[in-house]
Each structure stands twice: as structure tokens, then as C-alpha cells.
């Protein structure tokens, strides 16, 4: 009953209604956003929550009280916005794959044995196809967790873990063949 009243009040542009909603749900939405944006800043979380309340203010008609509670609806929107922000942050912090490859090339200061090992590793990496190659770089070069990689590449965490496992197996086989 409260949900329907508050939505009608927001639809009639009653600012005290949106204030009540903000006061009632900010702490819950903060917990949801911060659990998704674990590597995000406080500002990222604040922006995410602000986006949710702005969305409610601009589109109160999208909430259907017959399908669920306002609390649940706001929670789902918050989670979705936080995941979008997480993807955006992941894209901003990642380097293009070509730059990552250049960084693992041997430099003149590296001893001959390590240059040869780097060369063998690069040859083995060249044998990998996408997305295995990018997943490996994201995991071991950028130190991203499988969940972050999954968000960035629009895959499930299980798919990322499977690709990592299979890629490591392929690299082991390739490196063994190169040693012979």
C-alpha cells in the first residue's frame, strides 16, 4: 500500500515523496552497490545510487506494484547499474592487448636464458585463439579476477574459469613441444 502511494506522489512530482524513498532505501542500495563495485570508489557507489533515484524520479511509471515491492525493484536496478559501472571501470583500466604483448617481449637487460624462455612463451601465446588469449592476459597480467573478466567480456564466471584452465593446458603442451 505504501509503495503505491509513494509512486503516485512521485508521479505527481512530490519532492517529499522521493526524499522519503531516498531516506528509507539509501543504506540498502549502498550495500548492494558496494558489493558489486568492490574495486570502485565511494564516488562510484554514490553515483550509482544517485542514478537509481534519478531513474525513479524520471520513470515512476516503470514500477508495477502488482509485480513486486518498491524495495525489490530499486535493489534490482541498483545491482544492474552497479554492474554497468563495474564494466565501465574495467574497460577504462585495461590496456589494449597489443600493449600487453609488447610488455612481455624480452628487453636487452634480460639474460640470454630468460630471453629464450620469453620467446618460447610468446610463441606459445601466439598459438592461442581469442578469447583464451585475452582472458589469460587479463588474469595474469592485469591481475583481474575471473568475475571481473566475465563482466568485461560478457561471459559467465564459469566460462572464464574453463577458458583459463584450457588455455593453461594448451600452453603447457606448446611449451613442452618447444623445449624438445
List its traits.
single chain, Rna Polymerase Sigma Factor, Chain: A, 76% helix, 9 helices, Arc Repressor Mutant, subunit A, 180 residues
Describe the structure.
By secondary structure, the chain is mainly alpha-helical. The protein has helices at residues 2-11, 15-36, 42-58, 70-93, 97-103, 112-126, 132-141, 146-153, 157-179. It has 2 domains: 2-93, Rna Polymerase Sigma Factor, Chain: A; 97-179, Arc Repressor Mutant, subunit A. The protein contains 9 helices and no strands. The chain is elongated and about 75 Å long. The relative contact order is 0.09.
In short:
By secondary structure, the protein is mainly alpha-helical. It has 9 helices and no strands. The longest helix is centred in the middle third of the chain and has 24 residues.
Helix amount: over 70%
CATH class of the largest domain: Mainly Alpha
Multimeric status of the protein: single chain
**Beta fraction of the residues?**
under 5%
Shape: elongated
Q: What is the CATH H-level superfamily of the largest domain?
A: RNA polymerase sigma factor, region 2, helix turn helix motif
Number of helices: 9
CATH topology of the largest domain: Rna Polymerase Sigma Factor, Chain: A
Q: What are the low-pLDDT stretches, counting only 5+ consecutive residues below 50?
A: 97-107
Q: How far apart are the termini?
A: 75 Å
Count of domain modules: 2
**CATH architectural category of the largest domain:** Orthogonal Bundle
Quantity of strands, as a count: 0
Radius of gyration: 24 Å
Amino acid at each position: 500500500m505504501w509503495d503505491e502511494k509513494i509512486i503516485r506522489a512521485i508521479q505527481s512530482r512530490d519532492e517529499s515523496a522521493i526524499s522519503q524513498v531516498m531516506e528509507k532505501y539509501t543504506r540498502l542500495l549502498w550495500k548492494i552497490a558496494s558489493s558489486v563495485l568492490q574495486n570502485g570508489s565511494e564516488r562510484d557507489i554514490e553515483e550509482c545510487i544517485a542514478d537509481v533515484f534519478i531513474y525513479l524520479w524520471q520513470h515512476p511509471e516503470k514500477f508495477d506494484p502488482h509485480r513486486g515491492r518498491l524495495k525489490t525493484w530499486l535493489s534490482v536496478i541498483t545491482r544492474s547499474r552497479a554492474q554497468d559501472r563495474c564494466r565501465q571501470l574495467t574497460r577504462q583500466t585495461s590496456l589494449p592487448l597489443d600493449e600487453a604483448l609488447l610488455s612481455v617481449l624480452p628487453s636487452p637487460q634480460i639474460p640470454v636464458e630468460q630471453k629464450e624462455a620469453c620467446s618460447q612463451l610468446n610463441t606459445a601465446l601466439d598459438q592461442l585463439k581469442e578469447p583464451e588469449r585475452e582472458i589469460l592476459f587479463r588474469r595474469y597480467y592485469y591481475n583481474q579476477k575471473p568475475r571481473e573478466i566475465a563482466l568485461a567480456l560478457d561471459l559467465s564466471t564459469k566460462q572464464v574459469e574453463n577458458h583459463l584452465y584450457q588455455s593453461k593446458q594448451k600452453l603447457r603442451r606448446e611449451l613442452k613441444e618447444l623445449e624438445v
